[in-house]
UniProtKB/TrEMBL annotation:
The chain crosses the membrane at residues 38-57, 69-89, 110-128, 181-202, 222-242, 254-275, 281-300, 312-333. It comes from Chrysochromulina tobinii. Keywords: Membrane, Transmembrane, Transmembrane helix. This is Uncharacterized protein.
């Protein structure tokens, strides 16, 4: 009888020990531990910045739009990614990110990969800020930076390693049996979202800003979308820490992450007029997305081998150069938006003839 009474308490001991409510000093242990001091402290600063940004956005938008948070918070996100790369070099280097599972360790390649994603998020914050937009579009040197980030960011994607959704889903050892189906579903959903986000939250909204087609009210909604994106890009890494330390369950942590990126569709719906009013840009972005994803099917295997593998994205990248030339022509006044529609129709006809 004595053993029967003690067993439940014993089985709950690890859970109680690692629950933050059991120790009121848990934030101090989490953020002010002697290990990884700079990374922990700047992580706390980022969380404070993020909460203050939301508060100002909702209660004092004009103050928010003029505040240093517009650039300081996403810049701190890049610094967080860099410091994580410095401190966590002991993590395994593997194609499986380790994030979309409950058993696998986080991949060091995934940590380094976040440098790229936090950098392009920083770019979008800065690009939509009127203070920076003028110099970026008129300065001779800065306009080179503008064109690189608007049209060609994935040309320097290989500066950091790549992880793979495919590797995560194929692994039979990175998920517990009870969570295997859950992570199989949510990883597929996340993969589809990444495809959408890369081309429409990324490229499409950059094209709109490049042509100065976003008004003040739409820019306000864009800031909300970027706040959601900041959570999905940087705060999501903190969720993994909470999961690893036992403060959150694996499903709770991942569903919180999912909620942050799915919340971007709230802003997408509110920005629907940009999609309906700029259909040539929507179409050009769609062509780029399809070429990047399925362009390898249009060329032979020998050509693919020469280009670097089974899914060489050369056609998608070439289309980005075409898009840059077209939008530069529109912005410079050489031709109007109707030219985009003509090129789009000609491209669809050309690929239709190629395929059929």
């Amino acid at each position: 009888m004595k053993n029967d009474q003690e067993e439940p308490a014993k089985s709950l001991a690890p859970f109680i020990k690692r629950t933050p409510y059991a120790n009121p000093l848990w934030p101090i242990h989490l953020f002010f531990n002697k290990k990884f001091t700079v990374h922990r402290f700047l992580g706390l600063v980022y969380l404070v910045q993020y909460l203050v940004a939301w508060r100002m956005y909702l209660t004092d938008y004009e103050g928010f739009a003029k505040s240093p948070l517009i650039w300081a918070m996403p810049l701190n996100g890049v610094v967080q990614a860099l410091s994580a790369t410095y401190y966590f070099s002991f993590l395994p280097k593997k194609a499986d990110p380790g994030y979309y599972s409950d058993r696998s360790a986080l991949s060091y390649d995934f940590v380094k990969e976040n440098i790229f994603f936090s950098s392009i998020l920083l770019w979008q914050w800065v690009y939509y800020c009127p203070t920076f937009y003028g110099p970026l579009t008129t300065g001779r040197v800065l306009t080179v930076v503008e064109h690189a980030f608007v049209f060609l960011p994935y040309f320097f994607r290989d500066l950091v390693p790549k992880t793979s959704f495919r590797a995560s889903m194929k692994s039979d050892t990175n998920k517990t049996e009870g969570n295997a189906y859950f992570f199989f579903i949510v990883t597929h959903v996340t993969k589809l979202f990444y495809l959408w986000a890369k081309w429409y939250i990324g490229f499409f909204f950059n094209y709109l800003r490049y042509l100065n087609l976003v008004n003040d009210n739409q820019r306000r909604e864009m800031y909300r979308l970027l706040l959601f994106s900041a959570f999905a890009t940087t705060v999501s890494m903190f969720l993994h820490t909470l999961k690893f330390k036992g403060y959150m369950g694996p499903r709770t942590a991942f569903l919180t992450y999912m909620a942050s990126y799915l919340a971007t569709f709230y802003s997408i719906v509110r920005l629907y007029t940009l999609f309906l009013g700029q259909t040539p840009l929507v179409g050009i972005t769609l062509v780029a997305m399809l070429l990047n994803r399925f362009g390898h099917l249009l060329v032979g295997k020998n050509c693919l081998a020469m280009l670097g593998g089974e899914r060489a994205p050369l056609l998608g990248q070439a289309w980005q150069l075409v898009t840059m030339g077209l939008l530069l022509g529109v912005r410079s006044g050489y031709f109007g938006m109707e030219m985009l529609s003509r090129v789009l129709i000609a491209t669809v006809c050309a690929f239709g003839a190629w395929v059929f």
